[in-house]
Amino acid sequence: MIRVLIADDEDMIRTALAALLRLEDDLEVVAECRDGESAVAEAQRLTPDVCLLDLEMPGLDGVDTAAKILRSVPSRCVIVTRHARPGVLRRALGAGVDGFLPKSRPADDVAAVIREVAAGRRYVDPEIAADALSDERSPLTDRELDVLRAGARGETVAEIASALHLSAGTVRNHVSSVLGKLGLASRQQATIHARERGWI
Amino acid sequence: MIRVLIADDEDMIRTALAALLRLEDDLEVVAECRDGESAVAEAQRLTPDVCLLDLEMPGLDGVDTAAKILRSVPSRCVIVTRHARPGVLRRALGAGVDGFLPKSRPADDVAAVIREVAAGRRYVDPEIAADALSDERSPLTDRELDVLRAGARGETVAEIASALHLSAGTVRNHVSSVLGKLGLASRQQATIHARERGWI
DNA sequence: GTCGACCCGTGACGAATGTCACGGCGGGTG
DNA sequence: CACCCGCCGTGACATTCGTCACGGGTCGAC
Question: Residue B159 and which of A114, A118, A129, B139 are 20 to 30 A apart at CA?
Answer without folding.
Answer: B139
